[in-house]
């Protein structure tokens, strides 16, 4: 009987130590997971920031390009101006031909 009690106590002690070690590791793992979550939040914030910066850059680039080539309404005005000039040149040419 004494041997059985000793074995049972030894098994209980061993189980308590194992449970304690598992609990300690679980605590460390939970702490590590919190650190990972915080790091992930930081990365997500940076990604959102980069997306916003990219949108701003693309918009700025498109605006700059549109300013260089002219906005559609300005293009229409330029086309009308060119058409008026062509008509005026054509009429002037006809007048010069008639005079000569």
Automatic annotation (TrEMBL):
UniProt keywords, alphabetically: Coiled coil
Q: Point out the coiled-coil segments of this chain.
A: 26-53
Q: Which domain of life is it from?
A: Eukaryota
For this entry, the protein name equals Uncharacterized protein
Q: Which organism is it from?
A: Gossypium stocksii
């Amino acid at each position: 009987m004494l041997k059985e009690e000793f074995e049972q106590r030894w098994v209980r002690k061993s189980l308590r130590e194992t449970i304690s070690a598992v609990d300690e590791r679980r605590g460390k793992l939970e702490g590590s997971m919190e650190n990972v979550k915080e790091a992930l939040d930081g990365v997500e914030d940076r990604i959102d920031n980069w997306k916003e910066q990219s949108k701003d850059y693309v918009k700025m680039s498109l605006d700059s390009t549109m300013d260089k080539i002219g906005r559609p309404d300005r293009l229409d005005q330029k086309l009308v101006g060119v058409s008026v000039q062509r008509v005026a040149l054509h009429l002037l040419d006809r007048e010069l031909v008639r005079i000569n």
